[in-house]
Amino acid sequence: MAVLAVPVVFVFASHVHASSDPNATTTVTDEQPDEAVDEQGGVPVPTSVVSVSTVPSAATTVPLGCPPPPVSQAVFVGRLEVLDATQALFEVVRLRSGSVAGYSTEVPNVDGTVVTEVGVYYGRDVKFLEVGDSYLVGTALDATTGRIFSRVTREAPLFGGNQVADINNSGIVCPVFGDVARTLNVDGSSIESGVLSGLSGESDRLLLAFLVPGGLVLLGLVTLVLVRRALSA
User: Fold this and answer.
1) In 3D, which of 195, 194, 199 has the Cα closest to residue 209?
2) Residue 75 and residue 128: Cα distance in Å, rounded?
3) Could you report the per-residue pLDDT of 91-130, keeping only the tens digit for each?
4) Structural domains counted in the chain
5) Which of 39, 98, 136, 183 is least enclosed, having the fewest CB within 10 Å?
6) Within a domain: residue 207?
7) CA dist list (Å): 42 to 45, 55, 74, 148, 152
8) DSSP-derived 3-state class of residue 28
């Protein structure tokens, strides 16, 4: 038992002496990963480090090769003041988003207030709008002409769609974005833009359009029969 106690006491004493030394310092070193060695050439190969992204993923990502989402210039509630062959002039009642600066004019009223008027290009879609009505107008900027535009009808896809660009064959699935340059009713519903939409409230004229030609043809046939009977008599 005496022989075994000597090493134990010695170790304990050494531990106490090392810990009680006031000049003792503790050095902490960062362990670096060992470099990989090319077994054939004997050249150290640096260890590759994979970075981890901490940026949260977006709600909608656009794969490489797909068109970017459309950008809206401004969305506002406007009262239609003037119509011409291709454009509409709105009085901006309330601006929802974006800006119409550079595309609008400030018009003073008699009472001293100032209203903002903005012209929007529609093309043939102006025929679906009514002067005096209010609309929810979404606009986009045409980089070619430098003017803002909107639509009443949905934008028709190009002939062939993605097959022209061979996107479908590449296996890429592109997201579908809504049309930002669209004009709707104030409640968000679509404006009536059917073939017969311009005839709403014109039922009498529509009836005459069918009855008058038919009546003229019938009258001509009766007249022809009477003339032939008169000649034969």
Assistant:
1) 199
2) 19
3) 999 999 999 999 999 999 888 889 999 999 999 999 999 9
4) 1
5) 39
6) no
7) 9, 39, 64, 66, 71
8) coil
Q: The whole model's pTM is what?
A: 0.55
Copy the structure tokens of residue 196.
């017969």
CB 67 within 8 A of CB 164: no
Q: Which residue has the higher pLDDT, 12 or 222?
A: 222
Which range marks the domain in which residue 103 is found? Answer: 74-197
DSSP 67: P
Based on DSSP, count helices (H) and strands (E) in the chain, helices before strands.
Answer: 3, 9
Up-side HSE of residue 156: CA atoms within 13 Å toward CB? 3
Residue 81 or 9, more confident = 81
225 within some domain:
no
Amino acid at 124: R
What would the pLDDT profile of 32-60 be if each residue is shown by its tens digit?
545 555 555 555 545 444 443 334 444 55
Q: What is the DSSP string of 117-165?
A: EEEEE-GGGGGG--TT-EEEEEEEE-TTT--EE-BSSPPPPPTTTHHHH
Closest CA to 121 of 95, 94, 152, 91: 152
